[in-house]
Amino acid sequence: MLADNRIKAMCSAGAENDVSIGRMRIGKDAPLAVIAGPCAIENEQMLRETARLVIKSGAQMIRGGAFKPRSSPYSFQGLGLPGLKMLHRVGRELGVPVISEVMDSGDVEVMAEYVDVLQVGARNMQNFPLLRKLGTIDKPVLLKRGLAATIEEWLLAAEYIMVGGNEKVILCERGIRTHERWTRNTLDLSAVAVVKSRSCLPVIVDPSHATGHNHLVAPMAKAAVAAGADGLMIEVHPCPEKAMSDGQQALTPEQFREMMLEVSRIAAAVGRHAV
Amino acid sequence: MLADNRIKAMCSAGAENDVSIGRMRIGKDAPLAVIAGPCAIENEQMLRETARLVIKSGAQMIRGGAFKPRSSPYSFQGLGLPGLKMLHRVGRELGVPVISEVMDSGDVEVMAEYVDVLQVGARNMQNFPLLRKLGTIDKPVLLKRGLAATIEEWLLAAEYIMVGGNEKVILCERGIRTHERWTRNTLDLSAVAVVKSRSCLPVIVDPSHATGHNHLVAPMAKAAVAAGADGLMIEVHPCPEKAMSDGQQALTPEQFREMMLEVSRIAAAVGRHAV
Amino acid sequence: MLADNRIKAMCSAGAENDVSIGRMRIGKDAPLAVIAGPCAIENEQMLRETARLVIKSGAQMIRGGAFKPRSSPYSFQGLGLPGLKMLHRVGRELGVPVISEVMDSGDVEVMAEYVDVLQVGARNMQNFPLLRKLGTIDKPVLLKRGLAATIEEWLLAAEYIMVGGNEKVILCERGIRTHERWTRNTLDLSAVAVVKSRSCLPVIVDPSHATGHNHLVAPMAKAAVAAGADGLMIEVHPCPEKAMSDGQQALTPEQFREMMLEVSRIAAAVGRHAV
Amino acid sequence: MLADNRIKAMCSAGAENDVSIGRMRIGKDAPLAVIAGPCAIENEQMLRETARLVIKSGAQMIRGGAFKPRSSPYSFQGLGLPGLKMLHRVGRELGVPVISEVMDSGDVEVMAEYVDVLQVGARNMQNFPLLRKLGTIDKPVLLKRGLAATIEEWLLAAEYIMVGGNEKVILCERGIRTHERWTRNTLDLSAVAVVKSRSCLPVIVDPSHATGHNHLVAPMAKAAVAAGADGLMIEVHPCPEKAMSDGQQALTPEQFREMMLEVSRIAAAVGRHAV
Q: Which chains neighbour B (Cβ–Cβ under 8 Å, 3 or more pairs)?
């Protein structure tokens, strides 16, 4: 199926294929990678405070949306470039890499100035001009699975990036759309195991967007690590009920701390170091 | 649900909201609009010949992909700008408007020079920077429904275009992704009736991509018109088995001619003029 | 795919395979078959009055649920055997065949005493003991497609009935379950065309359950006939807002009458007689 | 949502609601319950040998299909009653409870003579006469989730059993049907966490049917336990490539042994005893 392509070539070379971001690594042989932070950046103080707390609990990278892909044009769309700069400053200040979503090929260059990893959201998984542009830069890309994407299409989307020369692709399972209505999406953890059997790309899991409810985040985070995920991406907000975007799925910093304790036990049980 | 937005404002004004493209109109009070042509433009002669034949059978607009969104980077990606220019020439020559897909906000301007209607494909239905850019131009936009999009999200995607000032949005149902495997997608014709009850936007149907099999195109084209669709978008190729993209779903010009005869009887039965 | 089985054997024999129920016939060469009546039988007078009105508008068979498969055990479950007897009496009185749903293999015999066609609901499409039992009787069976069934599985369910010797199987498309939330289910009209290309079994469509909203019933009924359906099954209730089950999808007798006028024009356009 | 019903009444009573089967218990406060055995019983020797090996590795209950719900009537349908008797003998001989699937309300009584737990398969989750009949017996029922069932419908199906007086219901998540094609179904592990938050019923997971591929069984078994599942149901066959049903998803006894070692580490990490 995936013959004669970049994934096959890279993976069969048997080389080290963990993705490095500064001193951090993500992949099979790396410690569990935990990315945390608010869904949307709302102001610098909130971002800094949240970042400090999640790093203290073990997060190694800070996430924060500056350009938000919202279903409605009338919802909060993010702070844009000023938000990105806040994220950059906070990351440098605290000495951790940062990640944010890019939605347009025209924004790739400016984005690459301010973040360490560029995230492609589920809605853009098959935005091929964006993927091709990301193939030309020298920064890692986190590629979320589309809501209706097959695993095959997801790997082919990774190929669109890799074919341009950028092989630093990290996959992120974040739930697919199904008939079920008590969760926001259906987290497909078997996709983690399938990706592991068909490629050597790192794959992480976002249980926050997948479930849409904060009480489901910890159980699914643990399940993800047990299934073999190389990392987690978790929404944390100091005051979820006041969040400007997706508050119902955010953990408080304290809930995040507890989750990390539970997750670290699972990580140990599957032979993976938590930081 | 859709209160205080552009669709509501436009539709409740009760004004004429058919979309005009030159002398052609698409909408509730217009004749059935039929767009036909090859999935991908392969060469100018093939395009011209196909266009001539479909126009003779009643098509009023020519479609042809120049930038093709293919799942794999190793599939034929379209001829690009040269293909677009061929489409432009053929349209002018034959005196009909032309439509082609735009995949990136950065291509909108050049695209708008060569085509009369800009198409947003299913994979880009929530490419918000692209939608916003399309809101700033003065050309109609055909907005295909995403594979996993709800009807509500589809209408909100239209809002992204309209909020910028461009209210010439034509919706296109092209099938959603389900568990069924004997059709490429599942054509959701009830979406046509729902859109009609919730908005006054024109809505057309693409039975070619929806079914993925040429023998299913005519039945679904007839069903679409019976359900109230304002038009059809049909793939036609002079030699489907040699097509560089999606040949199995293309009609031959002769099959298209027969389909048009059958469709015109349905159009008459629902009180709509076929051209 | 379907080689060496009953559908293939029957269909390739080229024999008449319309299903006859008294004087009524359902199939490719028969007039459009319209089955109408209330979702659930509530009392005999209401049933008789509804039946009279729908027959006057062109319905040829009366439907009415006596044993209702409801998601919750706390919802109205139907009148049971007394309801069945009402249906039987009303049918005999008005000279038309009647149909009702059977949910258990143990009820097949008693059911067969009172109804002319036994209906298998979507939830029981793969209730194999029930299907096998229906294979042993000499009455037609209406087999609804399951909510998550592929067309292939639906045809194989028909095989379960036919393998026992009962080849009078009528298929009924009633919508599949998808992510869309503005319709109750997603009516898959392409399934009609697929079934027609893969078998010679009659296939009808139930737009009431499929859409779940009465204003969508007429457009989908017309679309179904245009797609090639051999008949329709429509819920009609004299007073939908007081219905004990699924009132929001029922037509009033007057709405049914109007729908029949529109449908008959489509039937004529596809060369099929409406009664 | 679930007000005034049996689940609420039972769970709010705060009583012990683990389900007991002889000395075995399934539930929140019980050790991890592992059910294993072949998909279909093929002969007594194979069954006994498989049972011995899985018990040795920690399985506490033996599964084996005697009446098999196969999509096609031309596939192997199981040994029927003789198979059931084999299962009964092997269970008694080895001193462990046994479970098998019941497909028809008429079979409940005979089934209850031979097995300790009656299983309702995914296709019968809304076979209401069967559920009601199971409500009248004094044996535990394992209720698998339907392929297109929402979690709400699944809990309501449990209500159908409980309303008759039988509160010994064990839920089993076994994957839902989605667009993904590289796994047989999509295992919805978030359903485990949702069920735990909405009820006190025991819930186990069947990763064999969910994934359809034996190399995915261990990762998903571990993930299930990490997500909070009270048990696992695993297909084991001494020679998967010769299995008469679903061989590609069966583990060998040796693979099962290894899986159990890995699973026990996860169980320990979430504070649950593995036997």
A: A, C, D
List residues bridging with A259 in a β-sheet: none
Whether B103 and A72 lie within 8 Å, measured CB to CB: no
Q: Which residues of D touch C128 (CB under 8 A)?
A: 69-70, 73, 103, 123
pLDDT in tens, A118-165: 999 999 999 999 999 999 999 999 999 999 999 999 999 999 999 999
Please tell me if residue B242 touches chain D, with a CB cutoff of 8 Å: no
Name the residue in chain C with its Cα closest to that of B216: C193
Q: Which of B126, B156, B177 sits opposite A123 (nearest CB)?
A: B126
CB A22 within 8 A of CB A97: yes
D272 CA to chain A: closest CA distance, Å?
A: 13
CATH code assigned to D19-269: 3.20.20.70
What's the CATH number for C6-10+20-269? Answer: 3.20.20.70
Name the minimum distance, in Å, from the CA of B261 to any CA of chain C.
11
**pLDDT of B207:** 98
pTM strictly above 0.80: yes
**Residue burial D131-150, b: 16+ Cβ < 10 Å; e: rest:** bbbbbebebbbbbbbbbbbb
User: B-contacting residues of D 174-193, CB under 8 Å?
Assistant: 177-179, 181
Residues 59-98 of B with CB under 8 A from A: 69-74
Q: What secondary structure does DSSP assign to B218-235, as a single string?
A: HHHHHHHHHHT-SEEEEE
pLDDT of residue D273: 79
Chain A stretch 95-154, residues whose beta carbon is closer than 8 A to a beta carbon of chain C: none
Determine the Cα–Cα distance for residues D98 and A273; give it in Å rounded to an integer: 40
- Write the class of the CATH domain A20-269: alpha beta
**Each residue of D260-272: pLDDT tens digit?**
999 999 999 999 9
B56 band by pLDDT with thresholds 50, 70 and 90: very high
Q: Is A215 on the interface with B (CB under 8 A)?
A: no
Q: Which phi and psi (to 5°) does residue B103 adopt?
A: -115, -5
Hey, of A71, A179, A186, which one would you mutate to test binding to chain C, going by the most C CBs within 10 A of its CB?
A179
Domain B21-269 architecture: Alpha-Beta Barrel (3.20)
ipTM: 0.96
Q: Indicate if the pLDDT at residue D27 is higher than 90.
A: yes
